[in-house]
Every structure is written in C-alpha cells, then in structure tokens.
Amino acid sequence: MTTTRPAPFSLRSIALPAFGPALLFAIGEGAVLPVVALSARELGASVPLAALIVTLIGLGSWFFNLPASLVTLKFGERWAIVGAAVASALALAAAAVAPLLPAGLWLLAAAMVVVGMAASVFALARQKYLTEAVPVVFRARALSTLGGVTRIGIFIGPFIGAGVMQFAGITGAYWVGVVAMAAAAGLAVTIPDLVAEPAPAGGAPVRQATLRGVAVSHAGVFLSVGMGVLLLSALRASRQVVIPLWADHLGLDATQASLIYGISGAIDMLVFYPAGKLMDRKGRQWVAVPSTLIMGTALLLIPLSTGFVTLMLAALLIGFGNGISSGLNMTLGADFSPDNGRGQFLGIWRFMADAGATGGPVLLSGVTAAASLGAGVGATGLLGFAAAAVFGVTIPRLRHRRNY
After folding, report:
1. Helical H segments across 208-271, by residue range
2. What average pLDDT values come out for the chain (404 residues) when binned by 10 residues?
C-alpha cells in the first residue's frame, strides 16, 4: 500500500486569493486618503473639522476592532472579508456623491467612519485566515507579506487616484476606491474555505470563548508583549508625522518633504519578505528588537539633521527599520493567540495596536507644545528603545511559543 504525501506548502499557491484582496483594499484606501480633507474643505468644513473627519477613519477602525472579532466569528473569515470590502465600496460611493447632497459634509463624515469600521473587519479576518491557513513555519513570511502588500497598495493608490482626478475631479479618487474595493470583494469570494479540525471522539464539547474570558485568561500576554506592540504602533504612527514636521522646521519646501517621505516609504516596501523569512528561521526577537532600536535611533538623529541630505539619511534609516518590522505585530498576535478564541484575542490585540497608533502622535504633540519640536521628536524616539526592551525581555524563544 502506498501513501500519498501532501504537496509541500508554497506561499505562491495561495498568493492571489490571500494577498490580492489586501492589495486591492489598500489601493482603495490609498487613493482616497489624500483627498478626504480636501473634500471636507470643499463642503465647507473648517481646517480643524476637516482634520477630524480624516481622523474618523482611524477612530472607526480602532473602536470597531472588538466588534470585528464577533463579526468574523459569526460569518467566517471569507464572508467577513467580502462584506467589509462591499461596505467600504458603498461608503466611498456615498462620499463621492456627498457634494451633490445638502448634508454632504455629514455624509462624508459617516462614510469615513464606515470605511474605518470595514477596514478593522477586513484586517482582522485577513489576519485570522492566514494564521489558520498557513503552516506555522511560514507564518511570519505570510504575515510580513500581508503587511508589505498593504503598504504597497497604500503607496500606489494615491498615484492612481491622482491620474483619474485629472479627468474626473476630486470625486475621481473615490470612484477609484469604489472599483478597488469591489474588485477586492469579488476576488475574496475565491478564497478557499478553511477545513475545521474534527473534534476528538468522545471528547467534551469545547465551550465557545468570549471576549471577556480571553482578555482575563491572556492578561499576562496583553500586559507584556502587548505593551511592546502598543509602543511599536506608537513609534510607527509618530514617524509619519515627524518627517514632514521636521522638514518644515528646516525650511524645506513641500516637494522636498514629499520626496523624503516617499523615498523612505519605498525603502519600507523592499525588505518585508527577508524580514519575515528571518523571523521564521531564527525567531521573532531577531526582527523585533533591531527594528525598534533602528527606528528609535533614527528618530533621535532627526533633531540633529540640518538640511535635506541629513534628514533624508535619517528618514531612510526609519524606512528600513519600519520595513523589517512589517507584519511583526500580526505575527506576534498569531503566535500568542489560542485555538479557541483566536478571533477575540486578535480583536483585543489590534485594539491595543491601534491605541498605540493613536497615542503616538498625541505624545509628540504634547511634548512639542510643552517644550519644543526637537524634544517631541526625541520623546518619540525613546519609544523605540522602550519597545526594544519590552520585546527583548518578553518575547519567548520561537520554538517555545508557536502554535502547532
């Protein structure tokens, strides 16, 4: 009797259904992010109100992370992904027609909240699917690729939106988003269903986990490694604000600032897969600690920069550090998530990460207001060293903590 060995797993075998919807969703987001504030201004919003409407995307995502876990549990990963993409497409269509309606500003604000909520469902379901569908020895590579693909989409989305806006005006960016989200939904339908593991014969039925139960039973993880994730997210969000602010402080024009920011982002996108491979082969600490130290050091160097070249060098270092950390938060969340209650665990995990992403710029703003911009940038740089210390102490060796 001969036995048939299963074919060896390859990321290429799931690349299109696994990463295609994420790329399209990110392109849709990237296309509209630069124009939301401009749309709000055209609809009569003040500058602070326009900024608030942009912030509603992040707030919608942050506060919907916990409900997103319940949505994914109820409908399953595939249909949660499809539903999130459809909801985002409808919201962006509403934003596109907002200028034609009397309450257009309110409609735009509501649409951005829905986009944020949909993004939280999409991201959580995508992460949970890859965690369960990909063999653990490929986990970091898969989730780093997911993070890298998302960054690529966010990077190229504004260029596609800008091209369409040449012919269709500012609403053209929203229609690019609608098409990209609809395409993401259509492609997500082809995602293979996960096959549930059969229950052991004669075993007691497994009690369904709850958000509260998962939060209590894994409090030690959330208060240790989770704090590192919170600090890393704060560091990442702060660096997006620091580069343009310091460029303005040096008197660089908008073109120079955009060039520095864009090249830093390009470096960011080039190193995600090697970093994932390193995490799979050597362990998560080999990326978690160096990436946060590099970003922290680069941020401390920014106040010492005196012109275009020195700021560019610091920004390149930030881009490299951020790039090698692509997928790190998701990988750690997958590693520590339990088989029963994974969705709830990842919802809490993402809530903490988004809390850090919101708090980082707030810290920068507070220290800058109290002292100076240089002090604010330095304070955000120290977050990197704090995150490195937390990761260095709390991340167990790879062979002890992966879910098999």
Report:
1. 211-217, 219-222, 225-249, 254-270
2. 54 79 94 88 86 88 92 90 96 94 92 96 92 88 91 89 89 95 94 59 63 90 93 89 86 82 84 90 91 95 93 93 92 90 92 91 86 89 95 69 44
Closest CA to 289 of 386, 355, 360: 386
As a whole number of angstroms, the distance between CA 39 and CA 105 comes to 9
Under 8 Å between Cβ of 80 and 71: yes
CB atoms within 10 A of CB 230: 25
Give the dihedral sign, CA 389/394/397/399.
negative
The sign of the torsion formed by the CA atoms of 32, 36, 37, 43 equals: positive
Dihedral angle at the C-alpha atoms of 384, 338, 124, 350, nearest 10 degrees?
-30
User: 180: which residues sit within 8 A by CB, 6+ positions away?
Assistant: 24, 25, 27, 28, 31, 157
Query: What is residue 364's predicted lDDT score, i.e. its pLDDT?
Result: 86
What letter does residue 326 receive in the DSSP assignment? Answer: T
Taking the C-alpha atoms of residue 332 and residue 76, their distance in angstroms, rounded to an integer, is 22
If one counts every other C-beta atom within 10 angstroms of the C-beta of residue 49, the result is: 15
Query: Which 3 state secondary structure label does DSSP give 46?
Result: coil
Give dist(CA 168, CA 96) in Å, integer.
11
Return d(Cα 362, Cα 221) in angstroms, integer. 25
Angle (CA) 149-227-292 rounded to 5° is 55
Reported pTM: 0.88
**Cα–Cα distances in Å, from 166 out to 160, 170, 305?**
10, 8, 37
pLDDT at 117: 96
Residue 206 confidence (pLDDT): 61
DSSP type of residue 11 = G
Contact 335, 53 (CB under 8 A): no
DSSP labels for 114-129? HHHHHHHHHHHHHHHH
Measured CA to CA in angstroms, residue 155 lies from 23, 34, 258, 264 at distances of 10, 11, 12, 11
Within 8 A by CB and 6+ apart from 371, the residues are none
